[in-house]
């Protein structure tokens, strides 16, 4: 919806062609009807033409709306008795309306149009945003607020991270961040709403003011009053989904590679069996040795190409595990596949619990990487009784109330090769970006380190997604077994034999410890 967002906040648009819209599309002269038509076709195109979602189609819709509305308003002012334009199709607009608007662009663009401003305000509130299926209750909101408050060491650097200048994505100095700018973030983080919605509720308005005042008192600072319109606040579920177009051939190639990997390695060589998604179990998985009494392993992959990216690691893991039951959970919606169904956090946890219970298991050792640690965090939050031990690599679930994951994965402009690969190779893939921006709820995913018994965490020193040293110090304070892998980037352990062997050793140690506890 990036193009729609741009329409909602910007008056300057290009003349467009009619690309992407058929000639049988009918529009009416009513502003409301045309607005509804815009939203309908934008949503339809986003759903049906996902691969081309951010190309000329959306640009055409938004630009066409701009020119159509300006012409319509102009005509209505010239003739008050003739406020409607007969039902027209898009080809008529392009042949008749746009040329006329082109000759009068300066006149139209240099005067205010209240009707268009009203439309923009409405459209700004209708942009595709996601609300959690289960918002925070008042008690949960206060609890997570205090947990966040007590884990922030420097309020100034924390606040600076959540804001940036749009022209270069650099972070502003603390003095430039005003009280209402911070209120924007608080409204999103704790109410999942825009600030104006929160302020309309008297109880919420009082509570958000209390949060700001409490933070000031706790850190002995004073947030400057007012609002700085130059700054952008990072609010993942409200920000436009940022994605780059990929040819269908890319998805076909990944699909074929996955098909070969599944058939050759998972089924034939490793002897695993696949359980597909259904209405009762919205999570697919591979399983093996499910009759063994040992505590099973559950592996949850990160973003990228799914299990395909872990071929050697899985080979060593399965070889080491012997007859131990193993479950490999699939997250196809972050694996560059044409899959848009995303189960919620609670649905995913119920599916994982059902997966284990189906084979008579009540606990498992969870091995997770990157985004997979977020899923493991869901399990820890909603079904902690399932966890017999945990090994996390490159975790994104700790200190999510800091900006690092949100900014580095979605908003940062790449400057070096590895950042370009991360940005255009992974984070701006349509389905991955859509999941992060529309389905990942930070308050469900954040892990405060409690209940991490029999857990080991591995951090890459040069990780460009999380704040490695910040997370390391935080986990150390909580007495968690945490290791920094020197000189490694995010996911680089997959290509480092030494650290791969170390991680596998800890997985084996944690599994054996879980077996002993299970027997007593």
From TrEMBL:
Question: What's the domain of life for this entry?
Answer: Eukaryota
Residues passing through the membrane, by range: 248-270, 295-314
SUPFAM superfamilies to which the protein is assigned, alphabetical: alpha/beta-Hydrolases
- UniProt key word Transmembrane: yes
Instruction: Give the UniProt keywords, A-Z.
Output: Membrane, Transmembrane, Transmembrane helix
This chain's protein is named: AB hydrolase-1 domain-containing protein
């Amino acid at each position: 919806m990036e193009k729609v967002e741009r329409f909602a906040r910007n008056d300057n648009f290009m003349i467009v062609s009619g690309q992407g819209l058929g000639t049988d599309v009918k529009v009416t002269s009513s502003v409301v009807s045309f607005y509804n038509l815009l939203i309908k076709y934008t949503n339809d195109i986003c759903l049906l033409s996902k691969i081309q979602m951010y190309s000329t189609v959306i640009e055409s819709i938004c630009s066409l709306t701009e020119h159509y509305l300006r012409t319509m308003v102009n005509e209505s002012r010239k003739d008050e008795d003739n406020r409607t334009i007969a039902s027209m199709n898009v080809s008529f607009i392009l042949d008749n309306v746009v040329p006329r608007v082109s000759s009068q662009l300066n006149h139209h663009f240099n005067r205010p149009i209240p009707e268009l401003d009203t439309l923009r305000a409405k459209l700004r509130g209708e942009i595709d945003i996601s609300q959690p299926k289960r918002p925070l209750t008042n008690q949960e909101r206060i609890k997570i607020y205090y947990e966040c408050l007590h884990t922030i060491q420097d309020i100034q650097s924390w606040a600076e991270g959540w804001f940036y200048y749009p022209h270069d994505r650099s972070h502003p100095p603390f003095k430039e961040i005003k009280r209402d700018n911070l209120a924007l973030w608080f409204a999103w983080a704790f109410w999942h709403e825009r600030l104006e919605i929160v302020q309309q509720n008297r109880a919420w308005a009082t509570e958000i003011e209390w949060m700001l005042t409490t933070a000031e008192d706790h850190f002995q600072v004073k947030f400057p009053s007012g609002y700085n319109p130059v700054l952008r606040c990072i609010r993942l579920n409200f920000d436009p989904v940022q994605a780059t177009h990929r040819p269908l051939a890319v998805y076909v190639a990944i699909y074929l590679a996955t098909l070969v990997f599944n058939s050759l390695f998972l089924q034939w060589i490793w002897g695993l069996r696949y359980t597909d998604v259904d209405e009762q179990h919205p999570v697919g998985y591979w399983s093996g040795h499910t009759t063994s009494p040992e505590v099973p392993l559950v592996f949850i992959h990160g973003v990228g190409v799914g299990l395909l990216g872990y071929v050697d690691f899985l080979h060593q893991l399965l070889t080491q595990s012997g007859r131990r039951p193993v479950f490999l959970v699939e997250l196809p919606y972050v694996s560059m596949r044409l899959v848009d169904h995303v189960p919620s956090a609670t649905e995913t946890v119920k599916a994982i619990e059902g997966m284990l219970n189906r084979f008579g298991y009540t606990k498992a050792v969870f091995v997770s990487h990157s985004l997979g640690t977020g899923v493991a965090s869901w399990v820890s939050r909603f079904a902690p009784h399932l966890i017999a031990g945990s090994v996390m690599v490159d975790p994104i679930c700790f200190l999510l109330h800091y900006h690092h994951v949100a900014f580095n994965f979605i908003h940062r402009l790449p400057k070096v090769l590895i950042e370009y690969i991360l940005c255009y190779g992974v984070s701006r893939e349509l389905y991955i970006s859509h999941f992060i921006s529309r389905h990942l709820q930070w308050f469900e995913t954040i892990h405060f380190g409690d209940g991490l018994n029999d857990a080991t965490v591995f951090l890459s020193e040069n990780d460009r997604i999380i704040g490695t040293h910040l997370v390391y110090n935080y986990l150390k304070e909580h007495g968690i077994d945490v290791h920094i892998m020197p000189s490694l980037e995010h996911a680089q352990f997959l290509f480092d034999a030494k650290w791969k062997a170390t991680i596998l050793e800890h997985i084996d140690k944690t599994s054996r410890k879980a077996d002993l506890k299970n027997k007593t």
